[in-house]
Amino acid sequence: MAVAMASCGSISGVYANLNAIEKLPISSSPCLFRSSFGLDPIQRICIVPKRLAFSESTIIPKASSAAAVEDGSARDTAVPTPKVIIDLDSDPEATVVEVTFGDRLGALLDTMNALKNLGLNVVKANVYLDQSGKHNKLCITNASTGRKVEDPELLEAIRLTIINNMMEFHPESSSQLAMGEAFGAFQPDQKLDVDIATHIHVYDDGPERSLLCVEAADRPGLIVDLIKIITEINIDVISGEFDTEGLLAKAKFHVSYKNKALIKPLQQVLANSLRYYLRRPTTEESSF
Fold first, then answer.
1. Is 80 exposed, middle or buried (0-12, 13-18, 19+ CB in 10 A)?
2. Strand, helix or coil at 157?
3. 31 with 2: CB under 8 angstroms?
4. Which segment of 24-33, 123-132, 234-243, 266-275 scores lowest on mean pLDDT?
5. Its function (predicted)?
6. What b/e sequence results for 174-211 when a residue is b if at least 16 CB atoms lie within 10 Å of its CB, and e otherwise?
7. DSSP letter, residue 186
8. What crossing angle do the helices spanning 222-232 and 264-279 adopt, rounded to 10°?
């Protein structure tokens, strides 16, 4: 399934302050992402809470306190694993974002306000419960085009905005998130071994595309970096899904090379390139 691509801008403010996100207007192209990552003038968008009206929504009130649960009983002291899923596959008209944090999340109105300030519309929202907790699902489009969001930098801005709001309104979540080490009220309870946490697999998925699965320790900017590495070796990303599960990031991308599935040697090149980036030591240049 081919989807439109968006040209990538720069979001330099994300890493220093998650409350300031810089974005670039989106334009269309035959494929989701290609190998051009040009830098054009950018516009700073600050996340300022403001009421957001949206259509076709089914929401429930935000919990009145961190200890409140659906039936009013006392909450288990164990902190659930936060999950943020960004899905470009399931809806042809919108980018689907799902947020889960046990039963602690309410209507996410503050998060939707922040997304509106990124130039996005929440066209539909609903909440459902299962044994894993409360799932808040949002369908998001670009306000200027009315189309689904596919720009990798804007997708990363959405992810970091949601995580930032989660840590702000539920500070205990920072103990379960990789971002909590730098931006949260509590340090993560554990740290992942990067080598052990990194898993990369490429599978055949028909004659025209392959399926790339990546699992790695989460970090700010990971969506943009993964897409950049893939496209730098002239592989096209057709569509995908990016999940943040606590300290882990899990990505699934449908990829192709010249509208064909990746042959085995190219699959190996792709896997080696991603593995080198994800597992390389972070050494400051000034240390040399």
1. buried
2. helix
3. yes
4. 24-33
5. Binds amino acids.
6. bbbbbbbeebbebebeeebeeeebbebebeebeeebbb
7. S
8. 140
Amino acid in the structure at residue 119 = G
Helix 152-169, helix 109-116: angle, nearest 10: 150
| Distance (Å) of CA 278 to CA 32, 113, 266, 271 | 22, 33, 18, 11
Which whole-number Å values give the CA distances from 239 to 46, 84, 89, 133, 163, in the listed order? 28, 17, 6, 28, 23
271: pLDDT strictly greater than 80? yes
- pLDDT per position as a tens digit, 42-94: 333 333 333 333 334 333 333 333 333 344 443 457 889 999 999 999 999 99
Kindly report the length of the chain: 288
d(CA 284, CA 288): 8
Residue 146: its pLDDT value, please?
95
Rg (CA), the chain: 19
- Whole-model pTM: value is 0.72
The pLDDT confidence band at residue 267, using thresholds 50, 70 and 90, is very high
Give residue for tokens 């929440």.
Answer: 122
Q: Which residue in the block uniquely carries the two structure tokens 């995580």?
A: 163
**Lowest mean pLDDT, pick from 157-166, 185-194, 232-241:** 185-194
Structure tokens given for 151: 């720009």
Which helix (H) or strand (E) element contains residue 169?
helix 152-169
